[in-house]
Please model this.
Amino acid sequence: MKLFMEHGKIYVTGLGPGAAEQMTFQAGNVLEKCSVIIGYTVYIDLIREAYPDKVFLSTPMRREAERCRMAFEEAAKGKNVAMVCSGDAGIYGMAGLIYEIGRDYPEVGIEVVPGITAASGGAAVLGAPLMHDFAVISLSDLLTPWETIERRLRAAAEADFVICLYNPSSKKRADYLRRACALILQYRSGKTVCGTVRNIGREGESCRILSLEELMDTPVDMFTTVYIGNSNTMELRGRMVTPRGYRDV
Amino acid sequence: MKLFMEHGKIYVTGLGPGAAEQMTFQAGNVLEKCSVIIGYTVYIDLIREAYPDKVFLSTPMRREAERCRMAFEEAAKGKNVAMVCSGDAGIYGMAGLIYEIGRDYPEVGIEVVPGITAASGGAAVLGAPLMHDFAVISLSDLLTPWETIERRLRAAAEADFVICLYNPSSKKRADYLRRACALILQYRSGKTVCGTVRNIGREGESCRILSLEELMDTPVDMFTTVYIGNSNTMELRGRMVTPRGYRDV
Model:
C-alpha cells in the first residue's frame, strides 16, 4: 500500500475500542504523518495530548456530515487528513459518509484504515463468544426504522446466530434492549448465555455474563456492547464461550 | 489490564489479516514479552524472522487441539505463551478451543488479545460495505452441517443484512459460493452490489466489485473474503459503499 505518496488524501482511521494499545501500527503511522486530525470531540480529546504539533478539528456528535466536509476542505488544500473514529471506521463509523460526500470532491483520495471494532474488543473481554457465525445489529433507530431492526433481530434469533448489539440503549431508548430480548426470547431459551461489556479497553472496563432472561431486566448504557449466545454458547471458567462446531476436543 | 504480572499465562493473540502494520500495539507487546510463540506453521513462518530469540512451536493445519495442548503444557511450566492466529483470535480463531481445552488446565490463565478480523480488513480495501447491520457466515462445513449454513444464509438474505462470507471455497467445496449465491438470489436482486478481496494486507492484495449475478459465476479461493451488499449498497467512486441509513448528506 502506498501511504502518503500523494498530498490531499483522507485516511478514515479506526482507533480501536479504547486504549491506545488497541490501535494498529498502521493507524499510529497515519496519525504521525497527517498534519490535520479530525473527529468527534470526545475522541479528539483522547489523543490531542499525544500529538501536540497537529491541527485538531472537531464537531459535536450528530454533526457528522459537517465533519466530513471539513476533512475534504482541508484535503483539497493539499493536506493529509486523518478522520478518526473509535472502533473500526468501517463498522457504523465514518467511512461510508466520507465516500458519500466524496462524490463532491473527486480530486481527494480516500483510504480506510481498519481498527478493532467493539464486537472484537468486547468479545476478547468476555472470552470467546464470536467463534461461530454472528450478526451485528445496532439498536439505534436514529437512522434506521425500528421495523427493520426488529426484522433483523427475528431473523438472527431464528437462525441461531450469535448476536452482537451495538448502541443497545440511550436516554430516549431506555427500553430498547428489553424489547430486543423479548423478541429473541420467542426463538431462544431464556437460559441462553449472554454477556455485556462496558467501557471496552478503557478505565473502568467491566463485563458480566448472564442469561437471556436476566439480560432482559438489566439496564445498560450507551457505552455497553451486548452479546447473545447461540444455542451452543456456554459459560466456561467464568467466561462466555461459543464452541466452533462439532466437538473435536 | 495487567499484562505479564503472573507467569504461565496464554495470550490468544490475533495478528490481523496480513501485514505486520495491521497488528495492534497490544499484540506487538505480547509477542515481545512471551518466551514461547505457538501457531499454525504458515503464520509462524511469517513472524519467526522478527523474533530470533523466541521458542517457536507449531503444528500443521487441522491439528488445532494438539496445538492448544502444547500451549497449556508450556504455560504449565511457568512460561508466558503467545498462541497466534491470523485475523482476530476470537472470530473463527483459536480462542474458543483454548477455553474448551482450558477445562483441563485450571491453573493456567487465559487472555484473548483481539486483532483486525478479515471482515474489517477486507471492508477497508473495498470501501465501506459494513456500515450497517451485517452477518458473518463461514461456508466451511468441516465443523458445521451445511443445513445450518443454509438456514443462516436464508435468514441473513431475507432480513437484508450485509453478508460477509469467510472460507467461501476450498478444493473440496469448489461450488459452495455458487450454492450460497443461488440461495441469496431467492431474496435479493441479481444487481445487488458485491465485493471480493483476496490476500488482505498481503503481497498481491486485490479486490473486485461485481453484481450478485456475476459473483455467482466467479471462482474464488480460500484466501478470499466475500461481501454481499444489502438493498442499499452501491458502487461509489469505484468502491462498495453501504449507506448508514436515511440520507443525511
Remarks:
- The two ends of chain B are 40 Å apart (CA to CA).
- The helical segments of chain B are 25-33, 41-48, 64-76, 95-101, 118-126, 146-158, 176-184, 212-216.
- Chain B is about 30% helix and 25% strand.
